[in-house]
Structures are given as C-alpha cells and as structure tokens.
Amino acid sequence: MNLYLNRSYIPPDELSTLQSDPRSKLEALSLHANKFIVESLLNQHELFANMYTLKQFFLMQKGDFWSIFINSVGMSLNLPASSLKKFELEASMVSAAVQRPNELFDRVHVRLLSNDLPSSESLKGWEVFSLDYAVDTALSVVLSSNHLRKYQKVFAFLFFVHQIDWKLSQLWQKHIQLEHLLLKLSLVHGQLRYASLVRQKMLHFVRNLQNYLQCEVLDSAWKVFMRNMSTALKLTDVISAHDLYLSSLLPKGLEKLIPLFTLVAKFCAMCYEDFKLLFENLKDIKRVRTVAESRVARGEWGMDLNEDEVPLRQLQTQAMKLICENFEDVLSTTCSVHMDNSDLRSLSFRLRFNGYYS
Fold this sequence. Notes:
Radius of gyration: 29 Å
Largest sheet: 2 strands, antiparallel
Mean pLDDT: 82
C-alpha cells in the first residue's frame, strides 16, 4: 500500500483524509489503480486501435479490402483445402491492403483450420480459412483467447455470407459471357432467363442480410460499445463492455439461415456446371458455323453429312425449379416462425417488404 502512496497515485490533498479511514483508503487506491490500468490500456497499449482493427478484419468492415481479397483468392478457395498455401493467402492479404489502416494490420494473420477439423480432406478452402490476431500481454486481460475465438466465430459466419455473395456474382459473370456469345450467334436461350430470375431472388436475400448485419447489427453494436467505453472507469467496466459487445454481434436465430445458404450454394454449383457445358456447346456451334461460312465463301455449296448443326444444349430447369421452391419455402418458414419472435424481426421485415417473394 505504501508503494502506491509513494508513487503518488493519490493526490496529496487527499492523503490526510484517507489515513484516518482505512476503508476509504482502500477504495481510493482501487479507484486510482483502475484509472491507471484503464488509461494504460487506452494510451500505451492502444486498446481502441486494436478493437478497430478487429472490427475491420474479423467483422469484415473494411469493404474495399475484402472485395479485392475475395476476388483474388475466390477461385483458390473453391479448391480442396489441402491445396491452400498459407503464405500465398497472406501475400494476397498484403496486396489487398492497398492503403494500410495502421501499423496494427501486421497483427492480422491467416489461420487454416485444416488441422482442427475432422475429415479436412473433403473440405473446400472456404471452410478452413480463418484469421488469427497477435495480442499484447497487457491486452490479453480484455482480449483473451476466449474472446478471440468468439471473434473467429463471427468471422466464420460473415465470411460464409460473403462466400455466397461471391458465388452469385461469379454466376452472373458467366451468365453475361453466355449472353454475349448467344448474341454473336443470333441465338436465344430462354432457360437462361429463368436461371437469372432465381439467382436474383437469392441475391436479394443475401444483399438484404449483408445490409442488415452491417447497419443494424455491427454498426449499432460498435456505437453501444464506444458509449460504454466512454464511461468505463474500472477494468471490470472495460471487460464487461467488451463482453456485451461480443454477445451482440450475432443475433439469436441466424443459425436458422444456414439451410438457405446451403440451397444457394447448391444452385450456384449446378448452374456453374451447366453454364460451363453450355459454353462448350456454343463454341461447337460457332466452330461448325465457321466451317460452313468458309465453305460458302469459297463457293462450295451444300453440307457435309458428317457436319450437322450442333443442337443447343438445354439447362436443368426442373432441378433449378425444385431448388427455387425449396429456397422460397425455407425462407418463408424462417421469416414467419423464427424471425418474428426474435432479434431478427427487422430482417424479416426487410425480406418481406412489398411482398417480393410472393
């Protein structure tokens, strides 16, 4: 106790009063010690800067970075997890950080969960990609390994949502390529329009979910956290504010949306394979027509019996329709049963606004 007094954590004008009342002395020492610890965490150990860095990367709030990064490694993450190289992913992260937010970016590292998950041989890169964060010893009081696991859990869900969004965007790009090739060949493929409508319904769901998480969950939780931190006088207040912040990042009921993600991923995989085969089919049609046009240009009329016109390949519209119906049924059930009486009521209103899915 004399050590604290000698260090002058207590103003001199209070010493005489405190020496006559031991209990008041202990309370004052506790108050000043807590003040010293909190100020040290904020100033010397940059608590806010660390929390902001976690927000940008683990909560995927740095949109430009994640857009560049996912577009650069998306195809690699589609491959089996065993083919991933940690150093390549970290190099892509450095390339994506065109403007570093601060020096704390160096604390963010790639973590592959291949060794932590059973049957990792059958997993894709998307399923094993995660992040890790280097924490100072002093900050470990507020940002413990248990807290970091909670950040990683939130990141896993947000990264899953971004994965679905990326796959739908890739599907749209393939669709545009097919439309351009069909236009060059003066062909029309009506089934592509149906695939586009289904994709748009799914994209509407994903984008509304992303907007809800960004504006109504993550931003709101951060504002409450900042407000609580502004009034925190003790270390326990800081820890409590951080715990409350973490507990509000994933509203209850979000796990009910996983079946929807599964259906969207199944639709994307099926359409991607269909589009790939259709693209090869259109290339064959173009090749046959090119041969016929060159023959006509040389004045060689007629057609070789071995070079019949290649028929236009059809898509799996029945399978698409089945997935679409399942998607709408699950979404309708989820909105009416799981969302109306939970924290997801606002998301339910967004999805059912103007009767979009009806």
